[in-house]
Amino acid sequence: MPVPFPIEPAVAADAPAIAAIYAHHVIHGTATFEIVPPDAAEIAARMTRVRQAGLPWLVARDAAGGVVGYAYASAFHARAAYGRTCEDAIYIAHDRLGQGLGKALLAALLDACTVAGQRQMIALIAGTEPASIALHARAGFVEAGRLASVGRKHGRWLDVVYMQRALGAGDATPPGDEPV
Ligand SMILES: CC(C)(COP(=O)(O)OP(=O)(O)OC[C@H]1O[C@@H](n2cnc3c(N)ncnc32)[C@H](O)[C@@H]1OP(=O)(O)O)[C@@H](O)C(=O)NCCC(=O)NCCS
Fold it and tell me: What is the pTM of this model?
């Protein structure tokens, strides 16, 4: 069933709504290892960095145009040889969970990253987040490792599960724009 929320590239004016969605998860959850919520200006700066890297930042909107969830990709690591490998992030407004938004945003992000020439996507997921692990497994990610107790938040030690999915041709072909 199609999700009744359009998904489209974020614009700068979305930064406050994105900051508000993220702040809830920073304060109350363990999906992110940030502890102090970044303000809208910092979110805007992060959006600019993603765009300048040629990677997508998408939002899902409600009927009034408000942002109800977002997803973006960033470089998995800064060093040049990692250039075809990205890391995803997806956050849904706390009052919109379980409505198919995460699934729709991840599918759109996978498509956009493939079009952008990325070949692998990595998800770093707190071991405390079964919804995120299930979301990624449903989308074809497989577990690629687990780091034990590398995070500390809300009075508990947190594992990080690495999940990985190939994009497009994956490693079956070299990138089309690679110098010969
Ligand atoms: C993880 C998250 C993005 C999922 O988004 P969502 O819109 O709530 O999820 P959806 O309704 O699209 O469900 C997609 C799949 O996720 C899984 N899922 C969703 N909620 C779940 C839950 N509470 N428990 C277990 N699995 C769950 C299911 O496999 C579901 O697929 P199915 O309906 O075909 O079985 C959302 O819960 C969220 O924002 N969580 C906090 C932040 C976070 O963990 N982000 C990921 C960090 S990269």
Answer: 0.96
